[in-house]
Amino acid sequence: MSSTTDKIKGLANEAVGNLKEGVGKVTGNDKLVAEGKAQELKGEAQKTVGDAKDGVKNAADTVKSKL
Question: Which of 15, 25, 30, 32 is the least buried, fewest Cβ under 10 Å from its Cβ?
Answer without folding.
Answer: 30
